Amino acid sequence: MNIYGKYASTLNELLDQMLLRFRQLNQNYERKYHERLYEHLRGRVKSKASMEEKCRRKNLPLTPNSALQINHDSVGLRVVCNFIDDIYTCIDYIKSWDNITVFK
Q1: For 9-32, how does the pLDDT look when each residue is reduced to its tens digit (9 = 90+)?
Q2: Which runs of consecutive H residues, i.e. helices, occur in the chain?
Q3: Would you give the distance in Å from CA 55 to the centre of its chain?
Q4: 81 and which of 2, 24, 86, 104 could share a cystine (Cβ 3.0–4.6 Å)?
Q5: Taking the CB of residue 37, how many other CB atoms lie within 10 A of it?
Q6: Over 90: is that where the pLDDT of 6 sits?
Q7: Nearest Cα to 77, choosing from 36, 48, 35, 46?
Q8: Contacts of 60 (CB under 8 A, 6+ apart)
């Protein structure tokens, strides 16, 4: 059984949507300010093995609920910015998305 259950394929779709939105944000930012908002953008879906190991470490059952509701890093983005203000611009952008929570 896949730790992500029926949501496994959806995670890659979600990642693709997030990356696309950030690329569009960067294009709009470049048009407006003539510079890039970020230097590097990377994304990943945590591997099944890594998520299973994390659940075991936290003594959680190996279920989609543990992977997706209790742990909050099944899909991740890494955005490397040149300036501190740009980090907050990216965070505010993410906060503007529907059904998103930013964890510190």
Answers
A1: 999 999 999 999 999 999 999 999
A2: 8-33, 48-57, 64-65, 84-95
A3: 19
A4: 86
A5: 23
A6: yes
A7: 46
A8: 66, 70, 71
SS3 40: strand
What residues contact residue 63 under an 8 Å CB cut-off, 6+ apart? 3, 5
Q: What is the pLDDT of residue 49?
A: 96
Instruction: Residue 4: name the closest of 45, 59, 44 by CA.
Output: 45
pLDDT digits (tens, 9 = 90+) for 21-73: 999 999 999 999 999 999 999 999 999 999 999 999 999 999 999 999 999 89
Q: Are 61 and 55 in contact (CB under 8 A)?
A: yes
Residue type, 58: K
d(CA 28, CA 15): 20
Beta bridge partners of 41: 79
Token pair in block for residue 7:
């949501």
Q: What is the pLDDT of residue 98?
A: 86
